[in-house]
Amino acid sequence: MSDELKGVVVCHGSLAKALVEAAEQISGIRGALAPVSNTGCDRELIEQRIAAAIDGSSAVVFVDMPSGSCLFGALQRRRLQTGVEVVTGVNLAMLVDFVFHRTLSAADAARRAAAAGEKAIRALE
Amino acid sequence: MTVVLHRVDDRLVHGQVVIGWGRPLDIGFIALVDDQVRTSDWEQDLYRMSVPEGVELIFASVREALRDLPGWRADVRRGIVLTADIETMAALHKADPAVDRINLGGIHHRPGRTERLPYVYLTDEELAQLRSLEASGATVTAQDLPTTTSVPLRSLA
Q1: Helices in chain B by DSSP H: which ranges?
Q2: Which of A72, A121, B129, B148 has the fewest beta carbons closer than 10 A?
Q3: Which residue of chain B is at minimal alpha-carbon distance from A67?
């Protein structure tokens, strides 16, 4: 199972930890996702935290905002390492989908997770 | 004077700058002064993604900034001058003393730095450099957001 993708969730404050805990609670799958907080980080340190969480594996990095320091760190890591894809606008639906599809390629898993996340966003009238 | 904030923040353009300060200050431009970012197309593209519609993001080297600062001040829009490090802001102040109110918004941990505030870590040399800026007429304060307390440099020792 060691060739399965890693998921790294990178958010402001303590949001990533809460999202990972919630995804584990729903899916029952533990250890597939690693939270990374940007608290106390400059641009270099956030990238280092992401690199440590990925630990050389193929991975999908889920980022909260489509801009800012978390995205900067994720894209910097993607430039330095092949097999790393980045998805912005992380939500619980995409994480739950991802943990069940970690045998896909990183690119396919990222596309699939993004689609699942988009599908979960609705304005109910 | 329409440059309303001179900020040192090692994360450069991010939420605190664009939303936290940008909205209440009603800014129309951000001048990002950094010699390295000025030469990096991919970083510029990334930072452009961070600014809302209606806010111009200007990339400048230190040399270009010194040329353009008078124009930024004369701009009818309100703007922020942003650097990633103290050294760059000090260079602007040294050549243009009108860069006289300097905000420390985010200088994070690195080896050799000690915590002065949760969002400001400084080496003794950096602290001395900031004191030198004050001695030459600048006012240096730390404040991450407009809603938090402004901390004078003398309290960061």
Answers
A1: 15, 22-25, 35-38, 41-48, 62-74, 86-95, 124-135
A2: A121
A3: B50
Range of A42's domain? Answer: 6-119
Q: Structure pTM?
A: 0.85
Contact with chain A for residue B13, Cβ under 8 A: yes
- Identify which of B43, B50, B84 has the shortest CB distance to residue A68: B50
Instruction: Report whether pLDDT(B157) > 90.
Output: no
Residue A1 belongs to a domain:
no
A125 domain-assigned? no
How many domains are contained in chain A?
A: 1
Residue A74 maps to which CATH number?
Answer: 3.40.50.510
- Is B49 close to A71, i.e. CB distance below 8 A? yes
For residues B109-125, average pLDDT: 95
Residues A42, B118: C-beta atoms closer than 8 Å: no
Q: Is A61 helix (H, G, I), strand (E, B) or coil?
A: strand
Decide if B46 and A75 are in contact by the 8 Å CB cutoff: yes
In a domain, A124, yes or no: no
Q: Does A88 touch chain B (CB under 8 A)?
A: no
The DSSP line for A73-98 is HHHHHHHHSTTEEEEES--HHHHHHH
CB A68 within 8 A of CB B15: yes
pLDDT in tens, A67-119: 888 999 999 999 999 999 999 999 999 999 999 999 999 999 999 999 999 99
Locate the chain B residue with the closest alpha carbon to A72.
Answer: B46
